[in-house]
């Protein structure tokens, strides 16, 4: 630049000198008086030289300034290039999504993270801020917008926010977004660059931990978190206790933290159980004990105490989780339950013995009484009143005999928990039962419809099945309606290994609203029928359940009754 200034000054001087010489020669040709021409020429030369020097100085000064400006511009360009290179390197190296927002033009640029993390293809990405804001979850957009524009207005120094960003598949990811501003010479925000980090896993883990914390704090069981390591023959120190433990023990949180659980052991605690716990801790094994523990007020309570080891990612023991429960009331109830069971067993034995004795002692005089009544039946009695009395007596004796037989059946059923089963032809069972009830059927004249096509064979106890069918048909005959002809419908079906028998009639029915809970009870009567003893349905249910089946009833007064019997073919 300096040489260039010298060249320009020399050229300037040469040109002016040439003009001066030409001018001087012209004066010599056109003027007569030449006395002062030489002086004028000398003056022009001095002027040219002086102006040339001044021009050189001005050019030199300008050249210096230009050089400084040029160097500064080169440095600025170099810095911008280096900055852009660094930005490109960071944008390529980072797994974050980097964005560049030119605020005045509302121009948005994204790096490849927008595809790698959120799945957006190039043709799906918008080039302005509206596209960005549209992808923010509606529940987060207002909060995020307020914080961002406060930052743009320079009301806050730093900007970062957590929000949910929509992916290309319409799912949302939790993100952490951080940005910084670039300002012009007037301090106005012109550009903002930010980085979006996917924190979905961290957020999910945070929510999981909060859930676990809620479970622990709200649990009714007492929970302790205990240090992983401790000196030999001791229990490690407590580092956390949930509120339930404070309630159970009577100690406050601060009184528990830093103490060993052995502070709750007293004179009546089971030392063998305590040593068992110590051994499990030394062996780093899970353990559960039951022992007497003591509250802050020195009150005893029975506690079920478990210790569970917790290992870190490096498979090193880090903590113990202790779950404790006051089982004082539970143990008391167990003792009472066991006592009750013993009493019930004894009462059941006594009842069976009573039933046997009663049935045995009644059978002999009842047989004699029946024999005497049979003899009397052969004697002609003309007294009608006496004949009626003897008839009632005979009927009562017959009912008493049936009652004793039913009691014996009940005892036999209860004692036979397992029965010998065989393949039974249902058709043969129904034929036998109907034959036994032929007289009653002849009197009642019912319509009996039997459909066994879908299930003809049942693997069960034949004697019990015959008794069940006999009782159900007998009940239908006894409790038929006087207002309509009796109709009995019996169908059998089979699905897989389950056989279902539906038994329905249109008799007088049962009011289940009043009697559902006692339908199958012992000595439960629902009608004033003279032959009703309240044992039939109890026997049926007992026999069905002994056979491994179930029985259900649907009935309505004055409309009829349906029984559903189910059996497994095993």
- Uncertain spans: none
Bin the strand percentage.
15-25%
Overall morphology: elongated
Q: Which assembly state applies to the chains in this document?
A: single chain
* CATH domain class of the largest domain: Alpha Beta
**Which topology of the largest domain does CATH recognise?**
Heat Shock Protein 90
Helix count, DSSP H or I runs of 4 or more residues: 16
Largest sheet: 5 strands, antiparallel
CATH homologous superfamily classification of the largest domain: Histidine kinase-like ATPase, C-terminal domain
> Radius of gyration from the CA trace?
55 Å
- CA-to-CA gap between the ends? 113 Å
Strands in their spatial order, largest beta sheet: 2-1-5-4-3
CATH architecture of the largest domain: 2-Layer Sandwich
Share of helix, binned? 40-55%
What is the domain tally? 5
Structural class: alpha+beta
């Amino acid at each position: 630049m300096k040489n260039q200034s010298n060249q320009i000054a020399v050229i300037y001087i040469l040109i002016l000198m040439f003009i001066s010489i030409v001018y001087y020669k012209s004066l010599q040709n056109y003027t007569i008086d030449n006395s002062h021409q030489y002086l004028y020429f000398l003056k022009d030369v001095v002027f040219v030289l002086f102006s040339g020097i001044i021009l050189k100085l001005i050019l030199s000064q300008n050249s210096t300034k230009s050089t400084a400006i040029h160097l500064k511009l080169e440095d600025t360009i170099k810095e911008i290039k280096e900055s852009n290179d660094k930005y490109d390197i960071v944008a390529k190296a980072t797994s974050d999504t980097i964005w560049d927002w030119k605020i005045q033009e509302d121009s948005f640029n994204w790096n490849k993270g927008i595809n790698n993390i959120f799945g957006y293809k190039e043709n799906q990405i918008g080039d302005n801020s509206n596209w960005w804001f549209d992808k923010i979850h509606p529940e987060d957009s207002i909060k995020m917008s307020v914080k961002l524009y406060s930052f743009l207005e320079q009301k806050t120094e730093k900007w970062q926010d957590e929000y949910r960003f929509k992916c290309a598949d319409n799912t949302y990811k939790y993100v952490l977004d951080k940005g910084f501003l670039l300002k012009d010479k007037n301090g106005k925000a012109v550009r903002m660059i930010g980085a979006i980090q996917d924190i979905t896993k961290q957020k999910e883990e945070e929510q999981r931990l909060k859930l676990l914390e809620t479970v622990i704090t709200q649990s009714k069981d007492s929970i302790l978190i205990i240090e992983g390591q401790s000196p030999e023959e001791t229990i490690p120190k407590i580092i956390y206790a949930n509120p339930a433990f404070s309630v159970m023990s009577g100690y406050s949180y601060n009184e528990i933290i830093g103490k060993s659980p052995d502070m709750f052991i007293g004179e009546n605690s089971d030392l063998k159980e305590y040593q068992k716990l110590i051994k499990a801790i030394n062996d780093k094994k899970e353990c559960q004990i039951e022992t007497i523990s003591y509250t802050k007020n020195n009150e005893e309570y029975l506690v079920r105490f478990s210790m569970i080891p917790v290992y870190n990612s490096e498979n090193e023991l880090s903590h113990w989780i202790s779950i404790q429960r006051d089982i004082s009331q539970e143990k008391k109830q167990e003792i009472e339950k066991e006592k009750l069971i013993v009493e019930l067993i004894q009462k059941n034995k006594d009842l069976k013995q009573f039933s046997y004795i009663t049935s045995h002692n009644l059978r002999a005089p009842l047989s004699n009484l029946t024999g005497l009544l049979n003899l009397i039946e052969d004697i002609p009695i003309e007294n009608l009143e006496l004949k009626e009395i003897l008839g009632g007596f005979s009927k009562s004796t017959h009912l008493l005999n049936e009652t004793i037989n039913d009691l014996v059946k009940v005892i036999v059923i209860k004692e036979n928990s397992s029965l010998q089963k065989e393949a039974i032809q249902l058709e043969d069972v129904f034929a036998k039962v109907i034959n036994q009830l032929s007289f009653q059927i002849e009197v009642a004249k019912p319509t009996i419809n039997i459909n066994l096509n879908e299930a003809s064979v049942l693997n069960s106890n034949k004697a019990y099945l015959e008794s069940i069918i006999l009782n159900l048909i007998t009940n239908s005959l006894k409790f038929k309606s006087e207002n309509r002809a009796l109709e009995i419908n019996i169908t059998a079906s089979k699905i897989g290994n389950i056989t279902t028998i539906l038994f329905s009639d249109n008799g007088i029915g049962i009011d289940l609203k009043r009697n559902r809970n006692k339908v199958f009870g012992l000595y439960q009567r629902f009608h004033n029928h003279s032959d009703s003893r309240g044992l039939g349905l109890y026997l049926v249910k007992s026999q069905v359940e002994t056979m491994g089946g179930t029985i259900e009833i649907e009935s309505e007064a004055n409309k009829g009754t349906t029984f559903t019997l189910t059996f497994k073919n095993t």
